[in-house]
Amino acid sequence: MEVRRAVAADFAGVVDLQDRNLWSRVDPNDRGGGFLSNRFSQQQFEAIDDDVCVVVAVDDRTVVGFLCGSGMDAMRNNPLVHSMISADHGAMSPDSTCLGGPVCIDGRQRGKGLMGRLYDCLYRQLRGTRYKEVAVFIDETNIASMKAHEKIGFEVTNTFTHDGRKYLTLMKKFK
Q1: Which of 4, 13, 19, 49 is the most buried (most CB within 10 A)?
Q2: Owning domain of residue 124
Q3: Which of 91-120 are b and which e, b meaning 16 or more Cβ less than 10 Å from the residue's Cβ?
Q4: What's the DSSP call for residue 172?
Q5: Residue 167 CB: number of other CB atoms within 10 A?
Q6: Is 169 helix (H, G, I), strand (E, B) or coil?
Q7: Rounded CA gap, 162 and 175, in Å?
Q8: Which residues form the N-acetyltransferase domain (predicted)?
Q9: Residues 86, 121, 105, 148: is their CA dihedral positive or negative?
Q10: Residue 13 sits in a domain of what CATH number?
């Protein structure tokens, strides 16, 4: 399996993996394995990649995982991100905070350390840039994602509500 920055040919696979893992499309009995709260178009993923980057895990030419990194200013128009930023009490800075996510891993690849590998690839992409930490938001019912992020060193820094659902903000400084 290869973990690297996305190339143009990867984005259709990113959208496909995303769409299979959206909260609205995952059976409620299967949400314990994780889900995505927000949908992005292929053009939005490409814009995120242009802003900072999208990293992917590819196995036999199939995208089995992805992680986006974007600047706060580039994502301010996203209503969910806007709610997170509005609720922040100064922990995040547009000058040094990269927004991580969405992150998604195919169900058959979960529990194998792939999320850590995706974040390691993101950190390599961010070295030498202005970014010093990564902030993510996670739906409070997405226990799998919270545990996976805490396992690789993210810490809860805040909570906020958007459209009646509660989210947690987690952050991690990187070297």
Answers
A1: 49
A2: 2-173
A3: ebeeeebbbbbbbbbbeeebeeebbebbbe
A4: E
A5: 22
A6: strand
A7: 32
A8: 1-175
A9: negative
A10: 3.40.630.30
Nearest 10 degrees: Cα torsion 125, 110, 149, 175: -30
What single letter denotes the amino acid at residue 97?
T
Other beta carbons less than 10 A from residue 8's beta carbon: 8
Map tokens 């959208």 to a residue.
15
Question: ω into residue 102 within 30 of 0, thus cis?
Answer: yes
pTM of the model as a whole: 0.92
Three-state DSSP state, 41: coil
Q: pLDDT by residue for the chain (175 residues), tens digit each?
A: 999 999 999 999 999 999 998 888 878 887 878 888 889 999 999 999 999 999 999 999 999 999 999 998 888 788 888 899 889 878 888 899 999 989 999 999 999 999 999 999 999 999 999 999 999 999 998 898 999 999 999 999 999 999 999 999 999 998 6
